[in-house]
């Protein structure tokens, strides 16, 4: 089964991505599968923190309001240094769950910080493994 990478954003204050997998052929599980989600944001400054993630498989919420970790090296320009790296499977696992065949996979992102100074870009890795 697939491993898929997505880049969402930049997310500004209060912005929501309803489903990262929207339109993907794996939005609905073809067979019973384990779904694992890894994610990072490009900003590590406190004023820009606050991207939260939710995973729902079918009608079961697997995790909700999980803070997405930030990667930063105090570099002002994306694409330099640590920006653009990850998520790493050993460091940035947000969570996962097991869904039945036909379950819809919904990965929701929400930028909750209304006081943020800059937008966040979220990189997500989704692994789907048949069980």
How does this model look, in words?
Helices cover 0% and strands 46% of the residues. It has strands at residues 3-11, 16-17, 33-41, 51-57, 60-67, 93-99, 105-111, 120-130. The chain has 131 residues and is an all-beta fold. Strands 1-8-3-6 form a four-stranded antiparallel sheet, with no helix packed on it. It has a single domain (3-130), classed as Jelly Rolls, CATH 2.60.120.
Q: Strands of the largest sheet, in order across it?
A: 1-8-3-6
Shape: globular
Strand residue content: over 45%
**Helical content (DSSP H or I, runs of 4+):** under 10%
Mean pLDDT: 84
Number of domains: 1
Q: How large is the radius of gyration?
A: 15 Å
Roughly how many Å apart are the termini? 11 Å
Q: Assembly state here?
A: single chain
List the helices and strands and how they pair.
Layout: E1 3-11, E2 16-17, E3 33-41, E4 51-57, E5 60-67, E6 93-99, E7 105-111, E8 120-130
Antiparallel strand pairs: 1-8, 2-7, 3-6, 3-8, 4-5, 4-7
Note the main attributes of this structure.
single chain; 131 residues; Jelly Rolls; four-stranded antiparallel β-sheet
């Amino acid at each position: 089964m697939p491993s898929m990478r997505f880049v969402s954003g930049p997310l500004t204050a209060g912005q929501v991505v309803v489903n990262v997998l929207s339109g993907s052929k794996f939005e609905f599980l073809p067979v019973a599968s384990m779904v694992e989600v890894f994610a990072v944001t490009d900003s590590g400054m406190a004023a820009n923190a606050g991207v939260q993630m939710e995973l729902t498989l079918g009608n079961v919420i697997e995790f909700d309001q999980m803070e997405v970790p930030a990667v930063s090296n105090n570099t002002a320009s994306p694409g330099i240094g640590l920006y653009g790296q990850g998520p790493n499977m050993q460091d940035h696992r947000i969570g996962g769950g097991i869904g039945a065949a036909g379950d819809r996979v919904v990965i929701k992102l929400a930028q909750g910080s209304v006081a943020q100074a800059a937008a966040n870009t979220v990189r997500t890795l989704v692994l789907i493994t048949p069980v």
